[in-house]
Design brief:
disordered C terminus; three-stranded mixed sheet; alpha/beta; single chain; Rossmann fold; 2 domains
């Protein structure tokens, strides 16, 4: 896709923000960038980005993306004193937030945006930086439909699928529900993998069967190398997973939805953190399960696919297919 006339702004160059921003710059988009720690944004100047000193310096941009760590960070960069929605001057037509923040925090920012004439799109993503670089992210979007249609070409540059799920904060709820599934599936993968190994089956062999069955998925394939070779380099930590479980359980209480399985896995994640595994990848649920079974795990040192390099994403554009091919060559 050729970039259109819109001038874009980007706030947040953490691991995910950097991967997404790079995709926009590689596509030739006009992007100005702010990051709280400027030195972390400087590499993007070499890719064509203009760097600014404050979020407010992006207020004259047409569309501004935010990718930050937590609800308070989102409030600070939007409605804070130097935020892009601080007021007193121009404001962007659309703000698109790809962070995982609470619905309450987002509603407050949405109210301020509406006062100023800015449309807020909640657009949390499913995946991690490696998935983003491969063009395999899924994005749920909610907010004004007209703003979604305007922003869709840029959202399609960021992910393989973009689902509009309605007005308001519905995308936030979709992402929270998604991450509850993430934790529950990882826990049952850990339990069954330990059970198989206790019975004499290698982790690689069990997961090869699982991934080839109707129960296999992009996610189970992606987590297979970590399970087989015990590489718990963080892509998403146990502490972050706990935050999302607590957001999900809070939403369930407000909506009167019983969540017995999620509540149990939340306690297991708390146990993970209590056993000093909260700052590594949440695939370490496998290690916690093995400890409970008094099973000594050892790396199997087998080369197994994470599934990302095997094929382009479903419904990929030509550009995304090329990205997947490049990812395969450099994996």
């Amino acid at each position: 896709m050729k970039p259109s006339k819109h001038r874009l702004g980007w706030i947040g160059t953490g691991r995910m923000g950097s991967a997404l921003l790079t995709r926009l710059l590689d596509a030739g988009c006009d992007v100005a960038v702010y990051n709280r720690t400027r030195v972390k944004a400087e590499p993007f100047a070499r890719l064509g980005a203009q760097l600014v000193e404050r979020p407010a310096d992006l207020a004259d941009r047409d569309i501004v993306f935010t990718s930050v760590a937590a609800s308070q960070d989102f409030a600070d960069v939007t409605t804070g004193r130097d935020g892009v929605l601080a007021g007193g001057g121009p404001v962007p037509g659309v703000v698109i937030d790809s962070s995982t923040v609470s619905m309450e925090a987002s509603q407050k920012v949405r109210a301020k945006a509406e006062e100023l004439g800015t449309a807020l799109l909640a657009a949390p993503v499913s995946g991690n930086p490696k998935v983003a670089r491969a063009g395999r992210l899924s994005i749920a979007v909610s907010g004004p439909r007209e703003a979604f249609e305007t922003s869709l070409p840029y959202l399609q540059l960021l992910g393989a699928t973009v689902a509009y799920v309605g007005e308001g904060e519905r995308a936030r709820l979709v992402k929270i529900c998604h991450n509850l599934v993430l934790g529950v599936v990882t826990q049952i993968m850990a339990e069954t993998t330990v059970l198989a190994e206790r019975g004499g089956v290698s982790r690689a062999d069990y997961l090869e069967f699982l991934n080839g069955s109707v129960m296999g998925s992009t996610f189970t394939r992606y987590k297979t190398p970590a399970f087989v070779n015990l590489d718990f380099t963080p892509t998403f930590t146990g502490r972050l997973l706990r935050k999302d479980f607590e957001l999900g359980l809070e939403a369930a209480r407000k909506l009167d939805v019983p969540m017995p399985v999620s509540a149990l896995v939340h306690q297991i994640v708390m146990n993970l953190i209590g056993n000093e595994l909260g700052d590594v990848d949440f695939a370490s649920l496998l290690q916690l399960e093995a400890w409970g079974a008094h099973l000594n795990l050892l790396p199997e040192n087998r080369k197994v696919s994470d599934g990302l390099e095997d094929s382009p994403p479903p419904h990929a554009t030509d550009e995304q297919s090329k990205d997947a091919s490049r990812a395969s060559k450099h994996a």
